[in-house]
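Dear colleagues,

For the upcoming journal club I promised to circulate an example of a predicted protein-ligand complex. I picked one with DAU because it came up in last month's discussion. The inputs are reproduced below in full, followed by the predicted structure.
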Amino acid sequence: MTQLHSPKHILVTGAAGFIGSNFVHYWVNMYPDNKIIALDALTYAGNRENISSLESQQNFHFVHADILDTDKIETLMQEYQIDTIVHFAAESHVDRSIHGPDAFLKTNIEGTHSLLKAAKKVWLDNDIESHRFHHVSTDEVYGTLKPDEPAFTEKHQYLPNSPYAASKASSDHIVRSYHHTYGLNTTISNCSNNYGPYQFPEKLIPLIIANCLDGKSLPIYGDGKQIRDWLYVDDHNRGIDLIIRNGEVDNTYNIGGNNEWTNIDIVNRVCELMDELVPLNSISHSPSPNSYKELITYVKDRLGHDRRYAIDATKIQSQLNFHPQETFETGIRKTVQWYLDNESWWRHIMDGSYRQWIEKNYD
Ligand code: NAD
Ligand code: DAU
């Protein structure tokens, strides 16, 4: 496969979030000769502890900054001779976007534009030809599918339904426009639902694990028959890696694992793993159920809830030879085990002591 770009100095935004932190771990391991600038505003979703083990490494540098600060981005790009931007930073939780869309429009649309402006100024105004701006987006921009409809291809119409999805769709269009208008070397990936370590426990899978351990109800929105297409987070990162190096500029690649599950089936599977790994007779819940499944509770549906997402990953498979390494069985077991082994990590986040940890260790 022809390599079209060779990153050396890479700026990763949202590097203390779920996928961003997994990405920088992956990248440091894969490309120890690269310099990584990991930028994050440390919103409620950003957790510096996710990447603290990398901070002693010479080729890794954390910067606490906001992507809306264009001047700061320009300065960093110049100072570290950045040749590649991988843009994860976003407000990412659909439920929060329903209750408060403003932050989503600000960060996801204006924040992405701020980065693009900095990239244009530093790269294009200085005739730096070897550069890449990779924008990490979502399958939610395509809207929702009926049960018998084919999965989303890159040619699917954009029909975003939530304020989150609409803000991501807008950012995709702005990225595209910076290639067509100014010639910025951009690529975009639209990925399905990720799962794995370091996911903030407001999202379905970590929330279910945490609630099982606390004997709390497991909330299922509506009838629980909504479908999501799940991909292990490092498979997403492998896909992004392939796109940055070998993907064609101005191209969009859908990334997915061909792994559709209804929400209720996912929750049942997590409960089965919990029954196996943390048998209920080993912890005390009152009243004590026989299986974690007894904690499942149907609750009011999410407003405008998309029924089904599914990714057709033919393009990235055939053009860039992308194949997920994790099966769902191995990935979900690994993920549940990670949350069991790292209980203090998610408890810190949930009880706010993570903030105290940051103050003590860094500020
Ligand atoms: P996340 O919420 O876990 O992390 C987002 C990170 O961005 C946090 O660390 C946060 O502090 C940081 N951030 C937010 N606003 C910022 C700002 N103004 N400046 C700098 N940093 C800021 O999200 P995630 O699940 O890791 O998602 C990362 C990206 O991947 C997002 O763009 C999301 O749309 C996309 N995506 C996510 C999934 C998924 O299943 N989680 C799937 C497809 C695409
Ligand atoms: O498809 C990619 C998207 O996946 C990303 O772009 C988003 O950033 C990411 O958050 C995720 O969005 P979802 O809304 O699909 O993920 P979430 O984990 O919030 O919910 C998964 C499904 O489970 C969804 O149908 C809603 C449902 N759900 C969620 C929660 C938190 C419940 O039934 N109960 C819950 O308590």
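Two points we might discuss: The two ends are 46 Å apart (CA to CA). Residues 13-14, 16-20, 40-43, 45-46, 66-68, 88-90, 92, 107, 111, 136, 138, 168, 191, 193-194, 200 surround nicotinamide-adenine-dinucleotide (ligand 1) (CB under 6 Å).

See you all on Thursday,
B. R.
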